[in-house]
Automatic annotation (TrEMBL):
Residues 6-533 form the FAD-dependent oxidoreductase 2 FAD-binding domain. PANTHER family: 3-KETOSTEROID-DELTA-1-DEHYDROGENASE (PTHR43260), KSDD-LIKE STEROID DEHYDROGENASE RV0785 (PTHR43260:SF1). It comes from the Bacteria. Keywords: Flavoprotein, Oxidoreductase. This is FAD-binding dehydrogenase. Its cofactor is FAD. SUPFAM superfamilies: FAD/NAD(P)-binding domain (SSF51905). It comes from Bradyrhizobium sediminis. GO terms for molecular function: oxidoreductase activity, acting on the CH-CH group of donors. Pfam families: FAD_binding_2 (PF00890). The keyword Flavoprotein applies.
Length: 552
């Protein structure tokens, strides 16, 4: 049989790019096929904040953070909660990934020109015991240049391989089937879509202009997840999180539809943990959308008060930045699919960041001056102020009476009772002046400000919510935002895919979100954040190296 390449990679996102460049660097020929155009190279990583999970990094040590592989693995396993027979390979991937994050990950990236913002963020702080969910220390390392900064080294390597003839891109090629010969995957087939110069992220044409068939010794599926397909999200929604939301917004473009996952499963691949998901509860509707139902996630500091749709404060430890899935489970248990932040101008200017490269022009544009202004500006960062002015989910008022009235009008449910909301805020405000309190959220605020990174740029000085000098008051209606699928194709540590009969399928590999970021779900039930891009890097690298070696 004549091969068109040694390996075919399906998907031009981060995992696919990493895999393809590793194959090309090994001297093999690789074809990357993607249903979108060249302008979408890099996939969802381009839109990301560029956060990476690193352990015992120089950035941590400079800030006085004491971290270790053992502590990180303890946090990971406490968050993952592995409890299924099919968690054998996800657990092995988790152990290997934490070792990668504590070892060569930073140096490997740095050798390609990747750089990190010096202040380490503290995501998913937990709040239970030491063996439960959450990061014990700050580990969220933001890429200098955000999402584009993490894509750039691999796009550069891919372009160099393309120039040398080792790598070929086939954009606007939609795979409809994997070809299987004598039980081995040896190619892909599908249709060619009409060229479309639509802006990155926008919905592109699905007009078919032809078909194609390609053959290779191996195929790597790196096609992403299902976050843009709300029907699939609802279909796989786990009962433990309550009924699926009636209203959701999308953190990824429409073409992140899970179509290739279904095609690969049809070819015999074993998909596990499909009910494990990672969706955010701090979603706001984009006032200037790029894709359908475009939502943005608020990356909150610890000080906003969080109320459910009925006006009850979320219980400890479900505070901003603590436990995403715990918050999701609680919110869906209320019978409503939204909640509220109530905060002040002093809090929003210090604590609100928006996830995404396009919402952080200072970091994305690598401007030290503009980034420094985050800590010194009187207002919030410009993108946050734009949402405060134009966003349909934001309410700004001078007093609590007017704020609650507007919140009821916005939701249309009229569930909030002024006296109940005001009493909870006043009770919290009575404790804020003391460094020792019984209010757990206030304890968390004091704890956060002991960390220099939070004190400088992420945690407002403690103050009363109802202090007019800190105003105006702000309420934000928070929606469920689809993002990641944590399950995926079961793979060994070489990213080889298992079949439904439990045996390895010859010639088939999977990487990135399609593989649950490794093994079919290396996160288990919960993420520690900064681990999705890293999972694409690690699984893409393993897949590329293994496929290149197998190609002989």
């Amino acid at each position: 049989m004549a091969y068109d390449a040694d390996v075919i990679v399906v998907g031009g996102g981060l995992a696919g790019l990493v895999a393809a460049t590793e194959i090309a660097d090994a001297g093999k020929r690789v074809i990357v096929v993607d249903q979108e155009g060249e302008q979408s190279l890099g996939g969802q990583a381009f839109w990301s904040f560029g956060g990476l999970f690193l352990v015992d990094s120089p950035e941590q040590r400079r800030l006085g953070i004491k971290d270790s592989y053992d502590l990180a693995l303890q946090d990971w396993m406490g968050s993952a909660g592995f409890d299924r027979d099919e968690d054998l390979w996800p657990r092995k991937w988790a152990e290997a990934y934490v070792a990668f994050a504590a070892g060569e990950k930073r140096g490997w990236l740095r050798a390609m020109g990747h750089r990190i913002f010096p202040v380490v963020g503290w995501a998913e702080r937990g709040g239970y015991d030491a063996m439960s969910h959450g990061n014990s220390v700050p580990r969220f390392h933001v890429t200098w240049g955000t999402g584009p900064g993490i894509v750039e080294p691999f796009e550069r390597r891919a372009r160099e391989a393309q120039a040398s003839g080792r790598l070929t891109f086939r954009f606007r090629h939609r795979v409809d089937a994997l070809s299987v010969t004598n039980g081995a995957v040896d190619g892909v087939s599908g249709v060619v879509l009409a060229p479309d110069s639509v802006e990155r992220g926008r919905s592109s044409s699905r007009k078919v202009t032809g078909d194609f068939s390609l053959r290779a010794q191996a195929v790597i599926v790196a096609s992403g997840g299902i976050g843009g397909n709300h029907d699939l999200v609802r279909q796989n929604w786990p009962k433990r999180l309550g009924a699926p939301p009636k209203f959701m917004i999308s953190g990824v473009p429409e073409h992140v539809d899970g179509r290739m996952i279904g095609i690969t499963e049809t070819a015999g691949a074993r998909l596990i943990n499909r009910d494990r998901m990672w969706h955010y509860v701090e979603g706001i509707q984009n006032w200037s959308p790029i894709w359908p139902r475009h939502g943005i996630r608020i990356l909150p500091g610890p000080s906003s008060m969080w109320f459910d749709a009925t006006g009850r404060r979320l219980p400890s430890p479900l505070f901003p930045g603590s436990d995403t899935l715990g918050q999701l489970q609680y919110i869906m248990g209320t019978g409503y699919d939204y909640s509220w932040f109530v905060l002040t101008q002093s809090i929003i200017k210090k604590e609100f960041a928006l996830s995404g490269s396009e919402q952080n022009p200072d970091l994305t544009g690598k401007s030290w001056l503009a980034t420094a202004r985050r800590a010194t500006n009187k207002g919030a960062p410009a993108p946050v102020e734009a949402f405060k002015t134009h966003g349909v989910d934001f309410i700004v008022r001078d007093n609590i009476e007017a704020l609650v009235e507007a919140m009821n009008k916005l939701s249309g449910d009229n569930l909030l009772e002024l006296g109940q909301v005001k009493a909870q805020i006043e009770a919290r405000d009575r404790e804020i002046a003391n460094p020792y309190v019984k209010d757990t959220q206030v304890m968390n605020i004091h704890n956060a400000r002991k960390y220099v990174g939070d004190r400088l740029i992420r945690t407002a000085k403690p103050h009363r919510i109802l202090d007019p000098a800190q105003g105006p008051l702000i309420a934000v209606k928070l929606n469920i935002l689809t993002r990641k699928t944590l399950g995926g194709f079961e793979t060994d540590l070489d990213s080889r895919v298992f079949g439904q009969d439990g045996n390895i399928i010859s010639g088939l590999y999977a990487a990135g979100e399609a593989a649950g970021f490794g093994g079919g779900g290396m996160h288990g039930y919960r993420s520690l954040e900064g681990t999705f891009l890293g999972g694409c890097l690690f699984s893409g690298r393993n897949a590329g190296r293994a496929a290149a070696k197998a190609a002989g």
